[in-house]
Specification:
Largest sheet: 6 strands, antiparallel, barrel
Number of helices: 5
Radius of gyration: 32 Å
Order of helices and strands: HHHHEEEEEEEEEEEEEEH
Strand content: 25-35%
Helix content: 25-40%
Structural class: alpha+beta
Low-confidence stretches: 49-54, 84-100
Distance between the termini: 104 Å
Shape: elongated
Number of strands: 14
Length: about 280
């Protein structure tokens, strides 16, 4: 049955089959008898093959971006942990001998964002790392571009983050140019912007001033990029500014983050707990 169909098909398109057969024969004969024609034929086939492989490589490269991004994120976490700001310098002097020892204060763990909101009054971020990866509540979180927020809750394999885009978020920041400190808050209006409050009007702002973390709290290292000053409003009668800043982190495109572990946090908090009762007396 199939053989009969094949014969009928060949009879129906016999002129086409003969044409392509003769065309192929001519190409073969020309490539064998003429060096020029042979080189042109080889060049043409190589061009087609090269285009095909280039397309395949581009497609495979696209699908390989995820693993490459993961690798780069892990490498960045390692490099951040090697920064001088992640260490505390201890210097002891004994007569004329000076010995300096560095102890690492901050370590970094990379993670991927698997759920994120940015248009609510109180937004949250979920990441694919949890207790089994050394993540704990109150750890600071940053992106490759700047500040993100603080870890709120953890399970064995996941964690939720309170980003700066939350009505309860409050972080200590400062103006890089002057060193003047303030508090970073969010008014719930636009995910691209936040506000810095508690900055005395005795200090002047310049549009474009860089805002960074102050390092005064026990979570973020000093110098993490927060954003850039857009405008400063003098709150009448308060003696303070309300500063609008453009956030460095685009929460609409948040993908990889780094969780920061302050290895001395418990020691610092125990010391403060022991000090505060004395202050109240």
């Amino acid at each position: 049955m199939n053989r009969n169909r094949l014969i009928l098909l060949l009879k129906k398109y016999d002129y086409v089959v003969v044409f392509f057969f003769l065309l192929a024969l001519c190409v073969v004969l020309m490539s064998r008898t003429s060096y020029y024609q042979s080189s042109k034929l080889i060049s043409w086939t190589n061009s087609i093959a090269g285009g095909w492989y280039e397309g395949v490589h581009s497609i495979s490269g696209y699908f390989g971006l995820k693993s490459e991004n993961d690798r780069l994120a892990a490498e960045n976490a390692y490099l951040r942990a090697r920064l001088a700001s992640s260490y505390i310098s201890y210097t002891d002097s004994t007569f004329t001998v000076r010995d300096t020892v560095y102890k690492q204060r901050f370590t970094y763990t990379e993670a991927r964002v698997i759920k994120n909101s940015w248009s609510q009054q109180n937004n949250y971020v979920m990441i694919n790392k949890g207790r089994s990866h050394g993540i704990a509540p109150d750890m600071a979180v940053i992106s490759p571009d700047g500040i993100v927020g603080v870890v709120m809750s953890v399970s064995d394999n996941f964690a939720t983050i309170m980003p700066v885009l939350h009505s309860d978020s409050r972080n200590s920041v400062k103006v890089k140019r002057t060193g003047i400190s303030g508090s970073l808050v969010w008014d719930g209006a636009d995910y691209r912007y936040a506000q810095v409050i508690d900055v005395p009007t005795t200090h002047k702002f310049i549009q474009g001033d860089t805002i960074i973390t102050s390092g005064l709290a026990n979570d973020f290292p000093e110098g993490i990029l927060v954003g850039y000053v857009m405008e400063a409003e003098n709150l009448s009668g308060s003696g303070f500014y309300k500063v609008k800043i453009l956030l460095a982190t685009d929460f609409n495109k948040l993908d990889h983050v780094y969780i920061i572990n302050n290895r001395f946090r418990d020691e610092q908090e125990r010391l403060m707990a022991a000090t505060e009762p004395q202050d109240r007396n």
